[in-house]
Amino acid sequence: MIRTRNFYLRFYFAAKVLAMIIFLPILGFATPQARIERNLAEIPQHLLYLHFDRQEYLSGDTLWFKAYLANAATKTPLQETHRLTIELINVQNQVVSVSFVQIENGLGHGYIAFSPLLPGGNYQIRAYTDWMKNFDSNLFFTRELFLVSPSELEFAKPRQARINRNFNNKLQNKKDGWQVQFFPESGNLLAGVDNTIAFMATDGLGRYLQVSGEVLGSNRQVVATFRTETPGYGTFTLNPSMRGGYNAVVRNEDGRELRIALPAAVASGFTVTANLLNDQINIVGRRNFEPATADEKIFLMGLTNRGIEYFESVVFIDRSFQVYIPAEGLPTGIIHWVMLDASMKLLAQRSQFVNNFDFTKVTVDVFALAVQPATGFEVNVNVNLGPQNLDQGNFSMAVTSVDDAAVTAPTPDGGIIEKFLLSGNLGQLPNSAWKLLQENTQENRRKLDLIVMTNPWKRFQWDKLSSAETPTVTFPAASMFTISGQITSPQRGTIRNPAEVRLLLQGDLPRQFTTRSGVDGSFTFTNVQLLGSVSAEISATSRDLPGQADIVLNPYSAVTVDYLFSPNTRPHTTEMGANRPTDRLLTHEATSSIARITQRDQRGGTSFASPDQVIFINETIEQQLRTVFDVLRTKGSGINISSGRILLRGPTSIRGSSEPLFGVDGMFTSRDHLLSLRTTEIERIEIYKGPSASIFGVRGANGVIMAHSRTGRDLPTISANYALTGFQPQREFSSKQEPYGTQVQNLPKTWHWLPNITPDNSGIASLWLRFPQNPGKIRVIVQGIDAEGNLYYGEQIVEF
């Protein structure tokens, strides 16, 4: 659990920032400062984590997940409703499936049903909200997983085998390649002073390497040596001059060398270093020149996701300053130290990870009870979450099998704590830092510091944060769907005049939306609520519809896809087996969220067949009756109106309790919309029942009442039918829904998945779980978040 322990220190830092806002006008500096606070408040960012039931799956399996969406500044669950997009991406950079989950109060849960036709191999799951697209895509939730195809355990289909060979060649090239990156601690390499330079060495998959080397000056003399102090990371000190450049010669354990040019030294500038000494942060600033004026103002700012934590004017003595800041008053996570002048110009910067170790692993106790064979094997799981704020908390739990001989053991990824505190701000890390967060050792603190120094804070962009203008929002937050498209013509390209466009969502409760197209034929429907797979009819009416006009919806468009290799990326099967007639691959085209059902349908007006009754609206009716409902009640033949419901007594009415279909100008609409139309707007009302309603298909089984407006009379109309994918409908977990789990040995199985755990007042959730037989060794993982942004993670492995 994450919690700041010292309220008074938090108050101390808040008071300093408040005083700064009050008194900085004296320095002429208040406006730039206010910009930072304003931009952080008005353009809040999101933190997203998905808890999966396990790490490895079979084709045909179902992946279960719980989504946690929080404000990046406070880590508290977002109260607004958001649409979450979840994509499954293959190694060919294709989105092979997409699903949508509605997030309410920062929480949502769902599943990904892997098609049995999916080839085995590496995949990535990427998830994001529409709002997150305004920021760095590296901050999207991304997770790699390996999908095992039972039919490809030994042999792949010939076509897939060729694809797999190409991928394996690319994978091997990644493994053989390696890189070393150098990061001056302050962003600057300052001439004439000692500079700390961090470096990171990895292969093409991001696996950490052990390297050593030396730095050569312009005269090829060795001026510094270095060696990784922990796999993949290290630092060294360099005091550069302005004479010539510097090159690093790096050797890996295989004896291969890289020659890399270091950044050029700066003749005049600043550096800032940060070190944790006991419970104090020691900040040291340096410069290598004397200022033009003695009263030069330099400021030190400490910035986190939630805002400005520290702000002070600093005084240089002999070209340096030093301050000590209590670490305990700062939030656990990344703090960005920046040195500024009076105009808010960035002089030097340094990111640091502050870990107050004020989170607690959830206690998970598992007990087994012997039960009669007929009833199975029962296990009691006690989850102790603690008493704080749990009445508004939410937690999820996965119980999976563990096999020591598994192809890949399902090692935890660090969970919500590692994501929200570290990688959620730096982007995807090659390896989880969860172990480093758990133990308060000097070695772990050092490794965390190296990770932050070599992975720039992607939430921090100084030019945008300090801008006088509020950053532009390209993608507004979305809680529902936007459907857009265009009316096209082979002869003209687009129509010349706007058209009335209607969207009818069919189902138990038909819904209609209306808009007008632009001069180029484009149209958009916003705030459309879709649940599951929905049939939709889209029609357009205009005097300017050419003979071959068509309605084309814009397809689902993913954010730029680039498959990210990682240390967990594995080779694919390349041995070929015989193709069977039923073998086929699932391609990315098969998973579109917008699919055309019917071809274009065009008609010159809105008449259908011969109706059973036509009621023409003349002046007498206009004077006596005000609405369509009044007309049907008094003039309709064979219409039964009871308790406000309208029924047609036709010989082919299937269910007498169901109302007919309602429409206006050939477009189906809601009952209330039709009945509320005024008689002054209507030319005639047509009533279809019995055989005459068959023109409308199954939808007209209960009859149809179609009104024709005076303005829409005889206007050309075109329509097209589409299948739209909306929010994922809720589905209950069942271990029996894993039909392929018994076909492959040594792969994990999900015994139980509980997306919502509710503890009692003491913070304990006691659960009885039933297994069909002795499960052997199991892993229980619990994690979640409460209303104040406290994070929870617990894990236990037990064997029966």
- As for the CATH topology of one domain, it is Immunoglobulin-like
CATH structural class of one domain:
Mainly Beta
Helix content: 10-25%
CATH level-4 homologous superfamily of one domain: Immunoglobulins
- The residue-averaged pLDDT reads 82
Overall morphology: globular
Q: How many strand elements?
A: 46
Q: Structural class given helices, strands, pairing?
A: mainly beta
Reported CATH architecture of one domain: Sandwich
Q: Would you identify the regions where 5 or more consecutive residues have pLDDT less than 50?
A: 1-30, 579-591, 650-657, 737-743
Radius of gyration: 33 Å
- The count of helical stretches stands at 10
What share of residues are in beta strands?
A: 35-45%
Q: Separation of termini?
A: 29 Å
Verbal overview:
By secondary structure, this protein is mainly beta. Among the domains are: 178-354, Sandwich (Immunoglobulin-like); 481-529 and 533-555 and 595-600; 606-709, Ferric Hydroxamate Uptake Protein, Chain A, domain 1, CATH 2.170.130.10. 13% of the residues lie in helices and 39% in strands. The protein contains ten helices and 46 strands. Strands 28, 29, 31, 33, 34 and 42 form a six-stranded antiparallel beta sheet that branches. A five-stranded mixed beta sheet has the order 2-8-7-4-5, with no helix packed on it. Strands 35-40-41-38-39 form a five-stranded mixed beta sheet. β26 and β27 form a beta hairpin. The radius of gyration is 33 Å and the shape is globular. Mean pLDDT is 82; it is low at 1-30, 579-591, 650-657 and 737-743.
